[in-house]
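pinned: reference chain
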Amino acid sequence: MYYYNFKLTPSQPNSNVDFTKYKKEILTAVNSVNNGIAFSRDGKNIQLDKDNITEKEILLTLTCKTPLEHAARSLSALTRNLTGNYPDIFSQFVFNKTLFRMDLISQDSSFGDMELSDTDLLKGIIDLLFTHTTTTKAEADLRMKTIHEIKNLVKPYVKK
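pinned: its structure tokens
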């Protein structure tokens, strides 16, 4: 799993927005985005605790099964949901077509120190070759590149 920690602040300079007044709407929008087709299909999830919503700042974590080149783009779904479902509240705070300035604070992966057993390795290779479905062209390209590299590594050990 890949983790992207963001700090969201108002995109509008000198904004008078107070995010704490709209905690319910923000948390409902996060839940709606998480349950949407795109996030479900791509294995994405926004994690937001109500205590991480302050007057001018929201701290949240975006998780994803695959690495994201532009993780902040995934959060545009939150802006669309808030401005689409609560236009009377949030439309006035939109600047340059977005509600938030999104700063990536940190990113991490749960795969970095993972130790694989031989069984897990074999299962992973079988899944990669026969059952893994890709959702993006980049993921499909990475799958094919990985398969090619595995074949090259195994060639010397295959007896014909």
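why pinned: Residues 137-154 form the longest helix (18 residues). The radius of gyration is 20 Å.
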